[in-house]
Amino acid sequence: MNVLVLTGAGISAESGIPTFRGANGLWEGWRLEQVATPDAFAREPDLVHRFYNERRRNLLDSQIRPNAAHSALAEFEKRHQGNFFLVTQNIDDLHQRAGSRQVLAMHGELLKARCLDSGELFDWRQDLSTTTPHPRDPSVLGRLRPHVVWFGEMPIGLERILTAATEADLFIAIGTSAVVYPAAGIVNMVKDNCRRIEINLESTPTSDLFDESLRGPASVLVPQTLARLESFGIDH
Ligand code: BV8
Questions:
Q1: What's the rounded Cα separation, in Å, for the pair 50 and 128?
Q2: pLDDT in tens, 114-172
Q3: What residues line ligand 1, using a CB cutoff of 6 Å?
Q4: Which of 11, 65, 85, 96 is most deeply packed, by most CB within 10 A?
Q5: Which pLDDT band holds residue 26 (cuts at 50, 70, 90)?
Q6: d(Cα 147, Cα 121) in Å, to the nearest integer?
Q7: What is the Å distance from ligand 1's center to 193 Cα?
Q8: E strands within the chain?
Q9: Within the chain, what is the greatest distance between any pair of CA atoms?
Q10: What DSSP assignment string belongs to 99-113?
């Protein structure tokens, strides 16, 4: 049994990380589509750096930790004999901290910086700015960006996601509003006999494409649903 899971900001909401499209699409007062773009970074790099510095600091706050949904996915992966592939749209590290191993962060990672010139990645937990010295040469300033996929940029690992989708026997989407593509289109890429389950607080534009669309908080429904699936013996 090949299992493919897609998570969105909703799985991290109960860990204290705000979702994007909760309060009228503003993220703490910022319009995501205006700030998370290469054009915004070219025009106002300090503003975009501030947006991500704020989120990186929030993520590193000791109050922020994985919740029961993240842990249930990590436990399921450990027990699952078949293929298990977790694709997240989130740029937080909560899945990794919960112990998930096969994680593809298709929209990048907040705790990584990328060199604008070489593309080299660096683990990064401090603020970034237009005067940040380069780890390879401190005399070079401001040549790092957040390793995050902005609107109009190619998501990471699309080939691997497509392959996993065509091979999946079970696809579970958790905590995503299904408005951002190509992530929201994964449900259309799975084979006809793949079982599709959506877990979300509210209905989404793709809810009708799922065999089961479960309404409720991820911290309750994810452990419950994975336990139910295992009781049907789908842990192999
Ligand atoms: C691409 C990283 C080309 C940044 C993000 C014009 C120009 C260019 C592109 C486009 C265009 N028009 C449309 C597009 C495509 C565009 C797109 O989809 N735009 C949307 C706005 C219409 N997509 C792109 O640009 C993508 N790239 O198209 O490249 C290409 C692609 C393929 C092949 C060839 C070429 C790149 C998109 C990536 C953008 N970066 N993030 C950052 O984080 O700062 S996207 C951003 O929104 C988030 O990262 C997240 O990944 C994404 C989706 O948000 P969700 O995770 O779903 O969160 P949201 O708040 O929306 O919803 C949360 C849900 O959880 C809600 O439903 C809520 O009810 C639920 N919930 C809340 N609490 C709980 C809960 N559920 C359960 N339990 C709870 N407790």
A1: 8
A2: 999 999 999 999 999 999 999 999 999 999 999 999 999 999 999 999 999 999 999 99
A3: 8-10, 13-14, 19-21, 33, 36, 89, 91, 107, 148-155, 175-177, 179-182, 200-202, 204, 217-218
A4: 11
A5: low
A6: 7
A7: 26
A8: 3-7, 26-27, 30-31, 84-88, 103-105, 108-115, 121-123, 133-134, 137-141, 144-148, 170-174, 195-200, 212-215
A9: 60
A10: T--SEEETTEEEEEE
Q: Half-sphere exposure (CA, 13 Å, Cβ side) for 191?
A: 11
pLDDT tens profile 175-214? 999 999 999 999 999 999 999 999 999 999 999 999 999 9
CA of residue 176 to ligand 1 center, whole Å: 8
Identity of the amino acid at 7: T
Residue 46 has φ and ψ, to the nearest 5°, of -65, -35
Contacts 24+ apart (CB under 8 A), 155-161: 155/106, 155/107, 155/182, 155/183, 156/104, 156/105, 156/106, 156/107, 156/108, 157/87, 157/104, 157/106, 158/106, 158/182, 160/85, 160/104, 161/87, 161/104, 161/106, 161/186, 161/189
Is the dihedral angle over the CA atoms 147, 153, 158, 159 positive or is it negative?
negative
At position 213, the amino acid (one-letter code) is S
Instruction: Name the β-bridge partners of 146.
Output: 113
Average pLDDT in the 214-219 region?
Answer: 98
Task: List C-alpha distances in Å: 69 to 94, 202, 221.
Answer: 10, 17, 8
17 contacts 58 by C-beta, under 8 angstroms: yes
